[in-house]
Amino acid sequence: MNRVEPLLISSCTGAPAHKHPLARQSRPASCRGCFDGRKRLWDTSSDVFMALRCAIAVTSSRRFCGLVCFFCCLLTSASAQRAGLNDPNSLRGNSIAYDSDGGAVIVVTVFTESSKVRLDRQSVVRLLNKRTQTAVWETTTDRSEAVFGSVQYGGYEIEVSAVGFLTANSELEVGSSQGPFEINVVLERDPAAVNLNVADDAMPSRARKNTRRAVVALRSGNLKAAQKRLGEAYKLVPTSAELNFLLGYLYFLEKDFEQASTYLDYATSLNPRHLQALALLGRLELERGDFRTASSALEQAVAVDAEYWLLHDLLAEAYLKQQNYEKARDEAQLAIQKGNKQATPAQLVLGQALLNLQRDQEGLLALKTYLEDSPGSPMAPKVRDLIDEIEKRNPARSSDTENKQESTTASEGVDPLLALGEPTLAMKGWQPPGIDDTELSVASRINCPYEKVIDGSGERVKELVDDVARFSAIEELLHQRLNSLGDPTRTETRKFNYVASISETDPGLLLVDEYRAEHLSPAGFPDQIATNGFAVLALVFHPRMRDAFEMKCEGLGDWHGQATWLVRFEQRDDRPNHIHAYKVGGAVYPVGLKGRAWITADNFQIVRIEAELVKPAPQIQLLAEHQIVEYGPIPFQKKNTVLWLPKSAEIYFDFRKHRFYRRHSFNHYMLFSVDTDEKRKEPKASHTENIPAPNT
Question: CA torsion sign, 387 to 392 to 395 to 398?
Answer without folding.
Answer: negative
